[in-house]
Design a protein that fits this description.
The chain is of the alpha+beta class. About 35% of the residues lie in helices and about 20% in strands. It has 21 helices and 21 strands. Strands 3-2-13-12-9-10 form a six-stranded antiparallel β-sheet. A five-stranded parallel β-sheet has the order 16-17-20-15-21. A four-stranded antiparallel β-sheet has the order 4-7-8-11. The protein is globular and about 75 Å long. It starts with 7 loop residues before the first strand and ends with a helix. The relative contact order is 0.10.
Amino acid sequence: MATDDSPTLTTGPQNMVAMAGDVAPLPALTVLWHPDLDRVGEVAPLTALRDTGSVDLTRLEPPFFVPGSHVDRPIDHQTMNRSPVLRIVAKRGGLELGLGATDKKVEIDGAPLETMRELSHDDLRRGLIITIGSGYAFCLHIIQYPIIRSQDLGFLGSSDAIEEVRRAIVRVPDDETLVLLRGETGTGKELAARALHDSSARSKGPFVAVNAGGLTSSLAASALFGHERGAFTGATDAKRGSFREADGGTLFLDEIGLMPYEVQAHLLRVLQDHTVHSLNSSRAHKVDVRVIAATDLDLEDAVNDGRFMRSLCGRLTNGVTINLPPLRERREDIGLLLVTFLRTRFGSAAELQRIQSSSTYGSPWLSAQTIASIALSALPSNVRDLQGLAKTLRTCIVPGARDTHSVVAERLAILAKLAGSPASAKPSSGQKAPIDIVAALDASGWDRRRAMEHLGVSKSTLWRYLRPHPELVRLLDLSLKYLRRELEACGGEVASLAAKLGIPEALLTRRLTAGR
């Protein structure tokens, strides 16, 4: 492991000294939105709740600080009242929230705060989204205090959930050769794999990434283990295979749950004896490889359904497992993530700040209510959905563009349909109803890339949706030009062409119609 990854003790304004074992849960406010976008992501541990039993949110208190720094400062903006806007009171088993002397509209999870409201410990663990006027959004949540933070390892955010991922990564011993990453799509499994590689003694070796779910049964063995010349038709040259290419480094097997069943036994053998046998060769090759496997599927369910080998599942789950949290379990990070993606889209932090600052306080380019709607919505592809929202918002700065709130609302409605359930839904099973897939293909003119954007999913996820429906894969592989030529050869009879291609007539008709 890397030697420069010792954690940073961030205690906040009281500058307490504590060891990691002395931390305890404490309510905190994290800035999700602020007129000064550099303040997004700052945290205020509500230590006064332990001392006086209450905290007032004003322009001058409580102090907020950047995790990893002891420098703190209040909200300190002219649009925030000097008098209390919100009062937070400690109660047994939770908190109580009430309005201060303010004329600003205050909402909690999208509902107006009009009277004192009691919050349970479970509410705080989930994270509540508070908006004040149109300029400020906060997440009220639980944080371990004093705050101990490691290197970011490429992961943005100050939540305990993402910090646990960082700690888990640096705790993996260098001699551990198998790591399983579990998490929903878009939670950063490949980022975690690269961080594992970079923080290990293998960092100077190769990092080879393979989409195991995209391998066909006929080519998987060759791609992973290599082949000799003449091993099969078309094998004019020898190929080393991914395991030998990753020798001395890391092999990342993404979508391991979708690996063809017949290849899983070969993989199990390699994991056990660290020896690779190329196709058409009797020679064994010893390999020194750390294998990092990732999946968003429930492997145990896949075993029970006969889609995954029980022995391979046992081998993977008996080693080191790191769970990547979905965004709904780290709501306090959403503001910082979105601002970071927006800055990437807008080219610079200054340009994004200029656009936000040029709008009026009563009608900002991007309001606290819009940020709250994002934080409270179902985001089935997690961080990837935030990146898509940032891309969409980039189109809202041209003259005559629609307002950002309506654009975001439409996109969130689409994501909610894709999620198929509220934000507390279970991880995706990896399946998708055929009608949903066909509708997305129709809307995108049966273009793979456009279909990915329409669904808001990655290439590997789209393949997972398509894999159980070979007729859809077949239609996507056939160009519209080819289909029209063949249709002409069949005398314009769609039924005849459908029978010839082995594709349902109704589906073929939709493909031909969508391509016009």
